[in-house]
Amino acid sequence: MQICYNAPSRIALIMNTIVDNEHRTLPLFVYQEGIGFMAQAQMGQDALSALGTPGVRYPAQNQMGLAIALLIGCMVLAGVFFAGYLDAVNDRFRDSNSETLFLVFAIGSVVAGVALMYGIGFHNRGLYVQVYSNGLARVKGSKVEALRWDEVRSIWQSITHYQRYGRVVRSVYVYTLQTADGRKLKFSNEINGIAALGQTLQTEVNKRVFPQAMLTYQAGQPVQFGAFSISKEGINYGKKFLPWSEVEGAQVQSGFVTFKKQGKWFNWANVPAGSIPNLFVFLALIDNIVGLRRAR
């Protein structure tokens, strides 16, 4: 069974541009204690200069409003407990332990409010992600984590939509990149514009990973996608094997990738899409081999 290089796949079309990149390795630069500030800055600049032309910059989400709201809430709660403490002090017949409890809760509320204020309001201060033509950098203060696109071997995508009355009220995005030597970079809702950044990550990684996956398949070698393995004979999932001739269909629905076996009522496999590395490369190969039914 062959993969058609020019198959009109809606998934493969977004990956069919193969860029002939220069295969240089850029170490993931991470700030280290004990190195002078000027040396750190120079190392960071050297790492960034190797990434090519700068593109879009994605700053961190401003969480100060939420932090202030939580601080106010904790202060109000502390006021309620302190009023209870004063009431207990003035009540001669109340157990003295009540005074202690109210006072402890009041002080605890103040401490919690201040901790939340600093933990949430200042956690992402100075954080941003800079996209370059040949890679990206995650910068926070003097700490720089940089990598080239051609270093990345796997990308995971997890998107969760929370609904109320049939409408999406909040979406949580998590993208994880892993290099050939096992280093990882994770991006989530702390980044403003995470959905757009995620599309860029998928495009840049997939157009480099997909050609190699296709060549591996054509050479008769299995292509690994986490617990799944695709070969010319069929698809493996853990210890289970399903020949292509017995695949009734594959479907992506509600965040799960599902495979049906001919003549069977239950799904042969039903796996969260977020657990599959290089999901869109995986789907592109399946789409070319047996076709993929996408839920609308």
Can you describe what's shown?
There is one protein chain. 34% of the residues lie in helices and 30% in strands. The protein has five helices and 15 strands. By secondary structure, the chain is α+β, with helices and mostly antiparallel strands. α2 packs antiparallel against α3 and α4 packs across α5. A hairpin with a 2-residue loop joins β3 and β4. The strands form four sheets. A four-stranded antiparallel β-sheet has the order 1-2-3-4, with helices on one face. A four-stranded antiparallel β-sheet has the order 8-9-10-11. Strands 14-13-12-15 form a four-stranded mixed β-sheet, with no helix packed on it. Among the domains are: 58 residues; 77 residues, PH-domain like (Roll).
Give a nutshell description of this structure:
The protein is an alpha+beta fold. It has 5 helices and 15 strands. The strands form 4 sheets. A 4-stranded antiparallel beta sheet has the order 1-2-3-4, covered by helices on one side. A 4-stranded antiparallel beta sheet has the order 8-9-10-11. Strands 14-13-12-15 form a 4-stranded mixed beta sheet, with no helix packed on it.
List the main descriptive attributes of the protein structure presented here:
PH-domain like, extended, 34% helix, disordered N terminus, 296 residues, four-stranded antiparallel sheet, alpha+beta
